[in-house]
Design brief:
Strand content: 25-35%
Protein name: Branched-chain amino acid ABC transporter ATP-binding protein
Largest sheet: 6 strands, mixed
Strand order of the largest sheet: 6-7-8-3-9-10
Radius of gyration: 17 Å
Pfam families: ABC_tran (PF00005)
Number of helices: 10
CATH class of the largest domain: Alpha Beta
Order of helices and strands: EEEHEEHEHHHHEHEHEEHH
GO molecular function: ATP binding; ATP hydrolysis activity; branched-chain amino acid transmembrane transporter activity
CATH architecture of the largest domain: 3-Layer(aba) Sandwich
Family: Belongs to the ABC transporter superfamily.
Structural class: alpha/beta
Bound molecules: adenosine-5'-triphosphate
Shape: globular
Keywords: Amino-acid transport, ATP-binding, Nucleotide-binding, Transport
């Protein structure tokens, strides 16, 4: 079976600086795959390239077997790849409901959109309670929920989450991770970038450790969680 997403020897540069130096991995349908690694390892660059926001220097990206090279970002969304970016990028002056609607901008099925909006409110009740308020009044964690809800509004085949736990309190982080687990249980395919290796690996079917633009170690979530070098470098153990 072909994987939903195949990344092969991907290289991405900012000018002369190569931020991603030939990485390969796949994401199978229904799986959660995580990229972990320290600041500057190239995780965000990878997601931005998969979304069509950056052009690769080399290598191949295939989604459902079709090459993504040169496909513009809005067409990539239409193909079924949604990206919840680092730093959230919600629209603070628009209401929560309006922010969610923006996630469905390519869809025309009003009934489906209404059903998915309700699903987002079921997943994150606080968004439903405050649907008519400006999104800028939400806390950081709630804005993260809105960004995830918005990404889901395109009914993606692959949901890419960039550091959903960044800057959140431990309780909020737990809530976000629980939601990712819930989405996984519903069969959503997820590519998760996280600095919180413990949380990400606990959830993930597959994990890849990135260091300065390369994948240095791969395994199942639990293999990496128990790997001594990962524990030392990323889980704060001596
Ligand atoms: P973080 O968790 O800090 O976002 P990351 O693993 O996602 O880390 P990237 O943001 O992909 O890493 O950065 C990879 C490398 O590319 C870093 O060395 C970074 O400084 C560099 N980089 C990122 N964005 C740019 C840019 N717009 N211009 C130049 N260099 C960049």
């Amino acid at each position: 079976m072909t994987a939903l997403l195949e990344v092969e020897d991907l290289r991405v540069a900012y000018g002369k600086i190569e931020a991603v130096k030939g990485i390969s991995f796949t994401v199978e349908e229904g799986r959660v795959v995580t990229l972990i690694g320290t600041n500057g390892a190239g995780k965000t660059t990878t997601l931005r390239t998969l979304s069509g926001l950056l052009q690769p220097l080399g290598g191949a990206i295939r989604f459902e077997g079709k090459p993504l090279a040169g496909v513009p970002a809005h067409k990539i969304v239409a193909l079924g790849l949604a990206h919840s970016p680092e730093g959230r990028h919600i629209f603070p002056r628009l209401t929560i409901a309006e922010n969610l609607q923006l996630g469905a901008f390519l869809r025309k099925d009003a009934d489906g959109i209404a059903a998915d909006t309700q699903k987002a409110y079921d997943l994150f009740p606080i968004l439903g309670e405050r649907r008519s308020q400006a999104a800028g009044t939400l806390s950081g964690g709630e804005q993260q929920m809105l960004a995830m809800g918005r990404a889901l509004m395109s009914r993606p085949k692959l949901l890419m989450l960039d550091e959903p736990s960044m800057g959140l309190s431990p309780i909020m982080m737990q809530k976000i991770m629980q939601t990712i687990a819930e989405l996984k249980a519903q069969g959503t395919t997820i590519l998760l970038v996280e600095q919180n290796a413990q949380a990400a690996l606990s959830l993930a079917d597959q994990g890849h450790v990135m260091e300065i633009g390369k994948i240095v170690l791969s395994g199942t979530g639990s293999e990496l969680l128990h790997d001594e070098s990962v524990r030392k470098a990323y889980l704060g153990e001596d």
